[in-house]
Amino acid sequence: xxSPKLSAPLDQGGAPIPSPAKAFADVTASDSTLRxxxxxxxxxxxxxxxxxxxxxxxxSIKTTAKAYAIDLAISMVDLxxxxxxxxxxxxxxxxxxxxxxxxxxRTSPTTAAVCVYPDMVAVAKEAxxxxxxxxxxxxxxxxxxxxxxxxxxxxxxxxVEAGADEIxxxxxxGAFLAGDYLKVYDEITAVKEACGTSARLKVIFETGELSTYxxxxxxxxxxxxxxxxFIKTSTGKVAVNATPANTLLMxxxxxxxxxxxxxxxxxxPAGGIRTTKDAVKFLVLVNETAGQDWLDNHWxxxxxxxxLNDLLMQRxxxxxxxxxxxDYVTVD
Length: 332
Fold this sequence. Notes:
- Helix content is 45%, strand content 10%.
- By secondary structure, it is an alpha/beta fold.
- Strand 2, helix 6 and strand 3 (134-139) form a beta-alpha-beta unit.
- Helix 5 runs parallel beside helix 6 (121-127).
């Protein structure tokens, strides 16, 4: 099955986006040049990074600002179900919740997307039709990423042909940790091509398996150089997922990448973000590190399932003065 034909990508204003592949053509010409570049990135100050993430996490917001932050966070959720027991009925219910998160209050914003396996894309697409909610699909042998490239690309094309607006791919962590950076780069560029012009690409690093902050910085630059539209912390399927520190590091990377290339890339922390308090901490990280340009669901997402219910309960509390509890929100 042939790949979708590519055309020059456009930004939200319709202007051509600079090509990272062209900007880094010399760097990605060989294994040695790519390794030299990635290992030439500044080393991460672990103590400084974790201290800044902890400091920003102490910020608090009140009343009107909190109401705004809750609605913003709801609009940034990729409402997710990625289980072997997923059924069409469950996916339809998830789609209905994404479109109307609080059935008792139609002023609640929609979520950004629903995220499902490729075989559920068509069901999800029908469930959110006409709402503006995107359909994202994990692909490339999620979550392990252990498959031949041809299989990974077929996975992506199936999802795109079924109507996926976004593809969440996992990198080959084994290749990355072995130092085979060019293999990882080539796979990302091939997946990006398979997405065509209709689907944005999120590249998942599985930060909990990369061992060091230096590796997370290298993976961030590698993904962006290969054409990622988003860089994403994790699959949510391992013990260590999104943390304030690894997300802060990735936000620094996208900020610096745009300063160098003019290309803006989104960030998606995923896994372990369950409460409104957690979400607000991450929004503060975005604002204080990358800036307001990223405070939009086109550039920042939460990969979550349980988070939405807590956001809705806190939203109801602000509106009524009473804490409603989990019985007053729909079960995912």
